[in-house]
Amino acid sequence: MENLVEAIEQLKKEKNALVMGHYYQRSEIQDVADYIGDSLALAQQAARTEANIIVMCGVHFMGETAKVICPEKKVLVPDMNAGCSLADSCQADAFEQFINQHPGYTVLSYVNTTAAVKALTDVVVTSSNARQIVESFPKEEKIIFGPDKNLGSYINAVTGRNMLLWDGACHVHEQFSVEKIVELKRQYPEALVLAHPECRQAVLAQADVIGSTAALLKYAIAHPEKTYIVATESGILHEMRKRCPQTTFIPAPPSIGVCNECNYMRLNTLEKLYQCLKDESPEIIVDPTIAVKAVKPIQRMLDISAKLGL
Ligand code: 13P
Ligand code: SF4
Questions:
Q1: Which residues, 6+ apart, have CB-to-CB distance to 160 below 8 Å?
Q2: Do the domain assignments include residue 260?
Q3: Can you tell me which atom of ligand 2 is nearest the CA of 173?
Q4: pTM of the model
Q5: Together in a domain, 166 and 298
Q6: Which atom of ligand 2 approaches the CA of 87 most closely?
Q7: Is residue 10 situated within a structural domain?
Q8: Is the same domain home to 236 and 269?
Q9: Does the beta carbon of 170 lie inside 6 Å of ligand 2?
Q10: Is the CB of 59 inside a 6 Å radius of any atom of ligand 2?
Q11: Using an 8 Å Cβ cutoff, are 134 and 56 in contact?
């Protein structure tokens, strides 16, 4: 493995390649990445990098977003099968029909969507900026929000809006068990529950802090004296434990089984990362007619986030 890490470092230098990793990646990938972050930070970093090649260690939509932002760069994903159940729950043709059935609505889409869905969208949001972007519209604005119904109803609840929600969800975040979290809270009465807004409402009702992966991490870093039950994909525990070595982090369990890993995120391995840097493949290709439409709502998200200091 040491040799593999050295070989990856060598290839990065030779090819002026930037390796980015999401917090749900395998620990060894996070450790070799030049930059790790949540979906918003990865998009922002893609927009500012001067590297020739971006290797997106994450899932397909993250690679597509980087490619749409940087069409002149080569964007690679170590395993092209790294999809996303949430993005899959919103097919572009069905979403277009839904939009056409509701004329006069502004369309907001979570970043966990294909470029084709983004091309139908007015503004893209992530879990880091969804609330602020929704609040940047007047109260009476009619809004369609897709595809995550859990994030959408959470944003409706905290903003007092009544956005029309697409019925999509993430198979990992839907699985957290309220009963097992309540049981853990009994076992660790001092523990705080950190939850991602893709979790079901009943899980969010148990949470002390709700936010994106970066927001949950930031909270833990600011309060390392606490104990945490973490209701999101367990890859985030790697960076939490690294940044807060004295803190106890307990992964929240799913209803079935013991592990709460995203099987798509875990498809990327160190070996595949090495191979993809070496071969400069597999490469993300986005249909240019879709890309010219998809870049607008992504750019609007980046602009609003910059204005808000996010
Ligand atoms: P974040 O943007 O909060 O990192 O979330 C990405 C994701 O895929 C959550 O399942
Ligand atoms: Fe998609 Fe869920 Fe995996 Fe995130 S955790 S990439 S939303 S399937």
A1: 139
A2: no
A3: 2
A4: 0.96
A5: yes
A6: 1
A7: yes
A8: no
A9: yes
A10: yes
A11: no
Q: Report the C-alpha gap between 24 and 33 in whole angstroms.
A: 13
Q: Give the domain extent around 163.
A: 86-170+294-308
Give the residue, by CA position, lying nearest to ligand 2 atom 8.
84
262 within ligand 2 shell (Cβ under 6 A): yes
CB 22 within 8 A of CB 39: yes
**Contact criterion met (CB below 8 Å) for 144 and 108:** yes
pLDDT values of the chain reduced to their tens digit, one per residue, 310 residues:
779 999 999 999 999 999 999 999 999 999 999 999 999 999 999 999 999 999 999 999 999 999 999 999 999 999 999 999 999 999 999 999 999 999 999 999 999 999 999 999 999 999 999 999 999 999 999 999 999 999 999 999 999 999 999 999 999 999 999 999 999 999 999 999 999 999 999 999 999 999 999 999 999 999 999 999 999 999 999 999 999 999 999 999 999 887 899 999 999 999 999 999 999 999 999 999 999 999 999 999 999 999 999 9
Find the ligand nearest to 217 CA: 1
Query: Do 104 and 56 belong to one domain?
Result: no
**Total domains present in the chain:** 3
Nearest-CA residue for ligand 1 atom 2 is: 39
Q: Which helix (H) or strand (E) holds 16?
A: none
The response to whether residue 199 sits with its C-beta less than 6 Å from ligand 2 reads: no
